[in-house]
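This is your field. Have a critical look at both lines of this record:
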Amino acid sequence: MEKHKIHLTIALGGGVFALLVAALLQLIVIPLTPWHGGNGLLAGGDWVYFHELAVQMADQIHLEGWQAWSARPKGQAPAGVASFLYALTGIRQPWVVLPVNAILYGVALAALYSILHDISGRIRESLLALLPMFLMPSLVMVFGQIHKDIWVLAGLFSILAVWVRMLTREVPFTAIGCVILLLGNLAIGYVRPYALELLLLGQSVMLLCAVTIWIRLRKPNLLLAAGLAITISMSVNFGLGTGTGAGAATGPDPVVCVQWNYTLPLRMFDQKLENIARARKHLISGYPEAGSSIDTERVFRQAADVIGYFPRMLQVALLAPFPSHWFDQGKAPGSKVMRAVAALEMSVLYFSFVGLGAAAFIDRRRIAPMEQPRQLAVVMLLLFTLSWVAIYVLATVNIGSLYRVRMPAMLLWISFGVLAWQLVLRRVRLDRGL
């Protein structure tokens, strides 16, 4: 019961924090900047379009009734949420959406705490590892504007929390776990249907880990729970009728020509890679004016091209935007400030990677012996997040887009880094007899 109180307190506290900060952002901070796009929204972002679309639908609902409402007008779920609230309250202002964002942020925060605590086993260290959720400026834009990524953040962390719990705890897989998995998949699928295929890919990687863990540890409920998690994800994926996976991530024109050479024995995998190649080609040729494109000369024409790009893909997934790009002059409003923010956050990420490397090589037996299931949970999450980000790196050449969709993985990596540095400091204090 005490543990549930901690989770509830974190969720409520995080929700209040998000609501107050987002209100301050929309009502005071952004209107005072030269980049104000009206209604408390930053100019140049998709949220401006979402708001305009929501206002149009709310007006249509006022004239024709609720039958005019659509959950995803023109494929944009945030506009569907905003239009519902605009029509319900009669207020056509983006701040009406902030309570929903605050709830989602609170859920994401509590889920991340659950992950960190199940891995570290320490309340204080897990709470400290939540600091990135409060201190990263770019995350404020996620819950402070009309945004898709706050839904993905809450859904993804909730799903991963269930996976970690069933790996690290000897508890039966309950109906509550099924409900959390279902709601998490629905939240992601609602705003980004194509991301469900990426989620399924990442969970398939974790299923392979689960099989390995079952062989080594003989955890009785793990394989059943992992199989059920995959089944729920596949069912939601099929039910929402997702498109072409990573290709849909950028909405490629179906007539984009890629002279794809089929070389793999299983044509299905070749077709998936072709979809990725089409998406990449679409971004390269369709948006030549994009200010943050990278590796535009790399066009995929066969599976070997994709495989050959893997080393570079890992570099971009983990380290981009690179220091050489941090202070370039962008084209979008306020891009110079956003690049400076990215420079700060990437510096923190690099420092976190150093901490993870240091923690991996120190002798933990005297300070914090980590049980094997917890060690495997860390490996499992790192593989999941890397596979989640890797597909985006293959499909898109725009670093700005990658930075946004990588946010859940980046937050998890930095939080792990905070845990790792605390472990290193404990070892240092022990060596010095402190």
